[in-house]
Amino acid sequence: EAGVTQFPSHSVIEKGQTVTLRCDPISGHDNLYWYRRVMGKEIKFLLHFVKESKQDESGMPNNRFLAERTGGTYSTLKVQPAELEDSGVYFCASSQGVWNSPLHFGNGTRLTVT
Amino acid sequence: GENVEQHPSTLSVQEGDSAVIKCTYSDSASNYFPWYKQELGKGPQLIIDIRSNVGEKKDQRIAVTLNKTAKHFSLHITETQPEDSAVYFCAAGDAGNMLTFGGGTRLMVKP
């Protein structure tokens, strides 16, 4: 079984540019999550999809971040325009059910904004 | 919202010794407590989890204990090996399945 895959693994962009991160969850997993770890701090929740619907987006920092999951399969997270404080590692995770099903994480995308 | 504190932030042990990492949480509604291991360049990998109706769970050299009254839970690794070296994260979750993570513990096992 293929795990959660994320692309790209690294991205370096200048302040003000746009970056789009992609996540392919484990096949059949309806739940998809985005998390972020900034500057070696704790991993923080961004949002949760159930299929194509946003279940909880309370962790999204501001309107420069846009997440989509068209068709309930892969998801994208766009940052536009990027700011220096957006630098960090963005993780995607997926799970099968809802009631505390184990989360399976991808390897993350390391985003550096210069 | 939930707040999870994790200690220590770094832990160095000799190979063969035991390692203990402790976490406290604030929201009594949390009922799911997983532990993740993150190796360099990889994402967090679930190593063990415990639900609120259980006080202790063990899987070979790894065990987790939960004290719901005191709102704390701990990870115990016995007979540590160099390959146990990694960053470990605790987390607490509720029925909505959103996890709140602790700040992480960098474990170094010296051969």
Write up what this structure looks like.
The complex is a heterodimer of chains A (114) and B (111). Chain A is built from no helices and eleven strands. Chain A has strands at residues 5-7, 10-13, 19-24, 31-37, 43-50, 53-56, 65-68, 75-79, 88-95, 104-105, 109-113. In chain A, strand 9 (88-95) and strand 10 form a beta hairpin. In chain A, strands 2, 4, 5, 6, 9, 10 and 11 form a seven-stranded mixed sheet that branches. In chain A, strands 1-3-8-7 form a four-stranded antiparallel sheet, with no helix packed on it. Chain A is mostly beta strands and 114 residues long. Chain A is globular, with a radius of gyration of 13 Å. In chain B, the strands form two sheets. In chain B, strands 2, 4, 5, 9, 10 and 11 form a six-stranded mixed sheet that branches. A five-stranded antiparallel sheet of chain B has the order 1-3-8-7-6, with no helix packed on it. Chain B contains no helices and eleven strands. Chain B has 111 residues and is mainly β. The relative contact order of chain B is 0.34. The model of chain B has no long low-confidence stretch (mean pLDDT 93). The N and C termini of chain B lie far apart (41 Å). At the A-B interface, strand 4, strand 5, strand 9 and strand 10 of A face strand 4, strand 5, strand 9 and strand 10 of B.
